[in-house]
Amino acid sequence: MKLKSQKIGRNDPCPCGSGLKYKRCCIGKAPAPQENLEQEYKRKYQIQLKKTRDIEGIRKAGQLVMETLDLAASIIRPGLDTEAINTLVHDHTIQNHAIPAPLNYRGFPKSVCVSINEVICHGIPGNNRLADGDIVNIDVTSILDGYYADASKTFFVGSPGPEAQKIVQVARQSLKEGIAVVKPGNTVGDIGYAIQQYAEGQGCSVVRDFVGHGVGFEFHEQPQIPHFGKKGQGVPLVPGMVFTIEPMINLGGTALRILSDKWTAVTKDGSLSAQFEQTLLVTHSGCESLTPY
Ligand code: MF3
Ligand code: CO
Ligand code: CO
Asked: Which one of 65, 99, 108 would you pick to mutate in the ligand 1 pocket, going by the greatest count of ligand atoms within 8 A of its CB?
């Protein structure tokens, strides 16, 4: 049996949606140029999809970020002042012909964020010292050949107590839970949902006031990546998207306050907070970390 023809008849309604007959409307005209995904994501969401050469650039910046984080980790010990971490990160970045993105970013005075214990993020290095049992997040962002990569880890100083072990384990696994759902067809909301389900299931809370972000051409690009959310909501993930996932997880409540330095975010209840961050690329089959660990 012959299938009914898929061809548009002269007397059929015009596919352009005008309501006119095809023969009275678009029949002779060239088809409208197809908008590609890159143009669509820029127009709808202000998201800049990355091309192969951009991805190579961000991957190189990411390699330097990971090398710098490893170096910083190697000097952590009780008694070290956080200024020493800043000096190490700054000098290593410059020696590698890169720029530390935090320095002078919206007035941030240092080259790296160092956040101890109840500090959620954006801790400013200075003359405060690490103590045995502390947890410390080091957040490194480098600009290499104009490309940004952003990653952080939380470390133990000396021997951790049970609360420190708990919050660091839950924060590390929260990032993994988010990464596990990064693939085309899933949405930004799926990432937040996965993280929130896991972290709250462990009796911890998810920070709402800071989110992951697009990254690569600039420090903070669209889209925002909340670490809480609903399945299926938000922007659909497509290959070429590059963004961070960086859940900040608290042992107590989610409420925070900002210190008088205008940067340091601390838990209102004084409970421990931990964070892990990677820069991720959405690929055809899932995702690739550009700051792998
Ligand atoms: N690296 C942080 C992030 O993950 C941003 C730090 S902004 C700074 O987005 F100014 F404090 F460096
Ligand atoms: Co970030
Ligand atoms: Co960061």
From this structure: 108
